[in-house]
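== Sequence, structure tokens ==
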Amino acid sequence: MLRKSFQAALESIWMTPRRTLLSGLGMAVGVAAIVVLVSLGKGVQRDVAAQVEALGVNLVIVLPGRLSPENPFNPMSFIGISTLREGDIAAVARAPGVRRVAPIMFVAGGAQRAHRWADAALILGTTPEWFQMRSHTLKYGRLFTHQEMEQFVCVLGPKPAAQLFGDANPVGEQVLLNGKPFTVIGVTAEETSRSLLGSGGFEFAIYAPIRALQQAMGSQQIHRVIAQTAPDVEPALLQARIKAAVLRSHDGSEDFSVLTQQELLSRLFTLLQIVSVALTGITSIALIVGGIGVMNVMLMSVTERVREIGIRKTVGARQRDIFWQFLMEACLIALVGGLIGALIGWGACVAIDQLTVLTPAVTLDTILLALTVCGVVGLVFGVLPAARAARKDPVEALRYE
């Protein structure tokens, strides 16, 4: 019975291709939007994961301010106020299982040389341990050492070096960091990836010894403490040890947070998933509109095909045969629109990948999810036309003009 109803539905769709395409247009728009948005979200998640992993392996990060499930994005983690202290560095270094510790100080403002500016420069004060945690390839010069921690020297990323010096070798030249003169001793050669996040911002970085930078800026702020763990120590176990050590350093005041890379990713992904779900919910309205369009077309089809229904019932078709034929027809129209939308969405993702820094990740499960939703919508909105067709009286249907 179902096979014959399916064949009858296919024949009807094959005989009216224009009506099928027009009625499935709304479904195509909805599916295309869902494929593009979900793929963009997955692509951004992939980029974020790659950038966090590029920081290095086995890292634990100490942040100012307390993060909680109710407040996963504490403003103190982003603004200039920090609760971290100089003693926290030594406290973290003493925790069993910690191999290296590097403090990070962020400095607002750009880098300047004469009339040229590197406006997007990310000025970081740190120690040589940072370069051991995250390997850096040098294009010119060298990195600073522990003996230079109070000297006004800096290492430029490739972007600030190009903005300030062009193609010239800047080693030995001076730049102004937030108005203070620093001597360039090296230039890194970060690879700029085609990603929303570039190389995680490190191609824009300018590194300086943290003590010299604190002295130049007149501030003792420490905004992050990065700890690299031994590979044979479970990061979660070391996280508890570091938290206990910093807690003792703060006299029991838990005004900080300790995150592993996995937790940092999970918090970022939580925000991305919220945005993705919201956008997908908005675009799903197009599927509902498309489903209403399919229902209207099927209702008109029932009216146009009353005599056909009467003839089928006269030669032995039962109510459920007519019901399943029209219901399958509605589902097939929705799926045809969904397939067209999936192709449009895939093509849009290819265009976005070629023309922008975004890299959508189109996966089979995204396509299957969109088509499944499409089929369900066609099923729901096809029930009313199918039921109306099935209830037609054969005698009245044959007399219908």
In short: The chain has two domains: 2-50+268-398, 84-254.
